[in-house]
Amino acid sequence: MRVLSLVCTLSPSPKPSSSQLLAEQVGAEFEKLGAEVETVRVVDHDVRPGVGLDMGDGDAWPALREKVMAADILLLATPIWLGHPSSVCQRVLERLDAELSETDAAGRLLTYGKVAAVAVVGNEDGAHKVSADLFQGLNDVGFSLAPGAVTYWVGEAQQGTDYQDLGETPESVASTTHTLAVNAHHLAEQLRRAPYPGS
């Protein structure tokens, strides 16, 4: 089982990132289940705007798309900015829009059979709204969602504490992260055994 985590922080490496931290915690849960996990910070790559498979001129998306296509499970990890997923996360969704034109011999999107999940961090409310936006977008482009397909942490409103500043992981976050991993892993195994029918 292969898991790809696309971390959509606005902070390039090696700056600390709460989204990266939560993605790594999700990845650790997947690794306990025997999955192979790769984590990529999208902002470190020159992903061009657009809705095509390859926008040319050094576009880094085709290489990242290869990783998406090779994965059984895709995790999108994003901070909340102004009540929305980050602009980097939105760009990933826009690039995934190109998958609507890509089908196999049975007429299925190439993303059918792949499972998606979401990790969200922020200092204000909005995790449910952000996950709902991402769920709809990911499902539109062919990914399946297991129950409990999101883990998140949001700090107290109008305060400055980040997830990465906490001394330890809250139990509620840890248990939700575990549930996300085991449910997504289970669904991916089921879809591997029984693919969706052709169109």
UniProtKB/TrEMBL annotation:
Residues 1-148 form the NADPH-dependent FMN reductase-like domain. SUPFAM superfamilies: Flavoproteins (SSF52218). It comes from the Bacteria. One of its GO terms (molecular function) is oxidoreductase activity. It holds the Pfam family FMN_red. InterPro entries: Flavoprotein-like_sf (IPR029039), FMN_Rdtase-like_dom (IPR005025). This is Multimeric flavodoxin WrbA. It comes from Streptomyces candidus.
